[in-house]
Structure formats: structure tokens, C-alpha cells
């Protein structure tokens, strides 16, 4: 009897553990929206905007690689927002000022003001979207295409193939994907 009881308890615990694991989104998966606190003080909800798609960039104020990409990220936003695919940046540590003071909301607000970001810069809540898209370093991009209900993930990865801000990228992954979302052929 004890053996059966132990087996049943073990199965229940294992089932709860598996169900508690975060499901990671991959290319082809869908998401209903992203809704997070903005550096402007409001809550930004993608579902509230008329979009053809979204370029999400995970970035932090203290990351050297993110700093090197700031101009390119702003240029992406300017290039694609008019076409219906704006940039929305997410700070993975935005809600954790205690553990990440150089990357939390106050630092994000300061950066957004200093650099005059025209795109929303959102603070992730307990790494919800950072984990959802399996982001392990910054900057990383996710391209979403708008569907009737929600968005489909079309790309997760690097912005381009050149992390050195002094060099010109030869492959622009996010631009190529955004053009595909818009129905343009990519060479």
C-alpha cells in the first residue's frame, strides 16, 4: 500500500513540476499580446495598437553590446514604424531595481530620455517575456506578425551580423524578416 501511495504522490509532484515550467515560444508559435509598464509611466499593450507586426528588442542600459546597437535600433524603428512594424524594446531587469540597479526602470527611463527614444521601452515583469522567448543575452530581437487574433513569432535572434558599431553589417536579419512580414521579397 505504501508503495502505491508513494508512486501516486511522485506522479502528482512530477505533473505539477512539468505544468509549472515556462513554455518557450519558437518561430511559428503565437502570442496574444505583450502588456508591460513603459518608461513613460503608462502600461503599453500591443493589442491596443494598429500594427502589421512588431520588432521587439531585448536591451539593457548597461550592456556594451546594447549601447553599440542603440543607433541601429532607433533607425529600425524610424524605418519600420511608418510601415506598421514599430520597435518595442524590453528591459529584462526593468522591475528589479534591488538586484539590477543599472538596468532597472530608473536606468531605463534615464537612457530613454538621454537618447530620445521614440519607441516604447518596457520593463519586463519577473522575466516573463525574457523567458517566454528564451532570451539569454542582449540585444536580441523577436519579430512578430499580426494575425486576426494576436501575433505569430516569425524570427528570434540577432539584429544583424555585425556587433561592432564601427562596421557596417552585411546581413540584416531583422530588416529581412520585417520585409517578409510586409510581403516584400528578400534577396
Automatic annotation (TrEMBL):
Start and end residues of each Thioredoxin domain: 25-179
Entry annotated with the keyword Lipid biosynthesis: no
Domain of life, per lineage: Bacteria
UniProt entry keywords in alphabetical sequence: Signal
Record bears the keyword RNA-binding: no
Signal peptide limits: 1-20
Record PANTHER family: OS07G0260300 PROTEIN (PTHR43640), THIOREDOXIN-DEPENDENT PEROXIREDOXIN (PTHR43640:SF1)
Name of the protein described by the UniProt record: Redoxin domain-containing protein
Organism this protein belongs to: Pedobacter ureilyticus
